[in-house]
């Protein structure tokens, strides 16, 4: 279990044969695990999740099988449905994000649609990359799955066109952008994001003679400024394209008609591409916590004993003294308000992204 920005993530099945060269599995030392393997029973895993110190019924956003496998793979899908039905059967209404690039079958969408309580979002990863050395499993398959999922009427779950990773020179030609805008018409919302290009992934590219997308590596996802502008323009010109977001949680929240649970509204320049009704929803939910409320929220978390709140503005709280990102995300979701680590400052207009490809501020 791991608390990530989009939600508390359950990963008791690990291993994936799809072999995307940029897979985050490289960074977990799991690249060689190609066969999905369950680490425990689904009942045990769900019990661990709902008893987890970060879990709050109905509020904590959840993710499942997003780290080291694909939830719709044979050998994973049965686990997925058992867990979803267990959580749903408990009457829980939490968000749950399911990120896939695999094949969705008609019977899968029926089963997903039968979930009565959870706020389910299917995010279909699509890149348009055709270099088989980088993506052996064609992302056009995810596009077919997305269309099938979105066609069902009526449906409770929501669909997101998860356009990533966008890499300059690889999948950002005008044709790539136009195709993506066209495909997005089949989803309830769209997100675009860049590449996590960390040391372990760069090493893999080098060892396998793959064309390296960037000269440097970065802690955050990389989306160069000019690429972002071209993406926004491509969607603006494509009539009927899905509403496009910079942040995953914004797309998920919008698709369900709810305010963003990460409180991105505080970072005002992030919202300049958002529909007015959604802006109003997020504005209405934007509450600035006090430093004391933040401190009180972590009294039961031993790992957050060193929390120091340095500043709280209407944009975000600046904190330090946390050992890693997990308690920070707990606070961020608890208050739907941005909590930034003072050690990794967020710069104006950078949208929380890596510095590669952006002008340095004056
Ligand atoms: S208003 Fe801002 S925070 Fe809310 S969904 Fe739109 S972009 Fe995200």
UniProtKB/TrEMBL annotation:
GO MF assignments: catalytic activity; iron-sulfur cluster binding; metal ion binding
Keyword annotations of the record: Iron, Iron-sulfur, Metal-binding, S-adenosyl-L-methionine
Highest taxon above the source species: Bacteria
Protein name: Radical SAM protein
Species the sequence originates in: Acrocarpospora macrocephala
